[in-house]
Amino acid sequence: MKFLATLARGVCILCLPVLLLTASLGGVVNSLWLYPHSPEKYQVKEDLTEAGLKLSDAELEGIYAGLIDYFNSAEEYIDLTVIQDNNEIPLFTPEEIIHFSDVKRLIRLDYWLLLGTLIYALAYAGVYLFWRKDRRQLAWGVVGGSSLTLLLILGLILLNTLTGFRHLFYQFHLIFFTNPYWSAQGYMLLLFPESFFRYTALLCALSIVVVAIILGGMGGGYLVFKQKADTN
Q1: Of residues 179, 120, 115, 127, the one with CA closest to residue 145
Q2: Using CA atoms, how far apart are residues 87 and 72, in angstroms rounded to an integer?
Q3: Contact residues for 169 (Cβ-Cβ < 8 A; gap 6+)
Q4: Per 3-state DSSP, what percentage of the chain is helix, strand, and coil (rounded to 5)?
Q5: Distance in Å from the first CA to the final CA of the chain
Q6: What is the DSSP letter of 130?
Q7: Which residues of the chain have pLDDT under 50?
Q8: 212 in helix, strand or coil?
Q9: Which of 18, 25, 92 is nearest to 53 (CA)?
Q10: Where in the chain are the domains?
């Protein structure tokens, strides 16, 4: 029984970083306000105009909203069009369409990992809160998972400092994509410049750190309180 309890706590510790990461990524994907849809943000509108695609703010926001809808739909390939000179033209090239399909598969994987780790975390919490009524085990699991999360974030920060964001971003694409369509020439790279990914990566890291500190602080505070209560 002790071995099973230790194993369950170990799995909980490993689950928490995955849970926080997938939750933050899922939030980014579905937050329209994070996308570079205003004229001044990341110079997206200006770059598109220079490339021959003139869009209003509403049209640009509609494109990002369409992408969010696509990522959460059952459609395998995206089909977005824009009006230029009174003609309806496809927004993305065939290579870009394939890349978005690959991205969608990663997003679906993110959702499944989020669901799986959330179910386990809730089940683990439920067992130690209501069945075994051993809040110390739950607190230790939360403290361990939060500590591991912060260590992983620190490791990523060090890697970013040593190698640079562009190198890490490039390696990410080499690992998770089996074709070079992520660098396809078209409007995709103008709609999603590197500066956008820098910002969203920073936002994800900050949100994960904040939540990990809060959870770890709650778990650690409970352990300190119980230790003092037992001593007295």
Answers
A1: 120
A2: 28
A3: 194, 197
A4: 80, 5, 20
A5: 30
A6: I
A7: 39
A8: helix
A9: 92
A10: 2-231
pLDDT of residue 14: 94
Rounded to an integer, what distance in angstroms lies between the CA atom of residue 185 and that of residue 191? 12
What is the number of residues in the chain?
Answer: 232
- Cβ atoms of 82 and 63 closer than 8 Å: yes
Give residue for tokens 């399909």: 101
| Spatial distance between the Cα atoms of 130 and 53, rounded to a whole number of angstroms | 59
pLDDT reported for residue 170: 94
Concatenate the DSSP letters of all residues of 153-172 into one string.
HHHHHHHHHHH-HHHHHHHH
CA distances from 4 to 9, 10, 11, 16, 117 (A): 9, 10, 10, 18, 18
For residue 69, CA distances in Å to 27, 64, 78, 115, 190 come to 14, 9, 10, 20, 20
